[in-house]
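Subgroup meeting minutes
Present: P.N., E.W., G.H.
Scribe: E.W.

1. P.N. recapped why we're keeping a running log of single-chain structure predictions: easier to compare across weeks, and new members can see raw inputs and outputs side by side.
2. G.H. added today's entry (69 aa).
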Amino acid sequence: MEPTTSQQLLDAVEAFRVEDEKFTAGNGAAGTRARKALMEIAKLAKARRAEITEEKTARKEASGESAEG
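Output recorded in log:
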């Protein structure tokens, strides 16, 4: 089973944390990996926002239909 977007986001944050720590300690190459992780976080955050909006809309429509019916 594929991990949820939320889990992927948490994994990306952890990857960033690890690479940022290495970069702060002086490893320049880790800076590139940290920046890559930040781009992945941005992409996943955008996807999760869309999922949340979609779910909210579906809930609103479902509650509206049951109230009418």
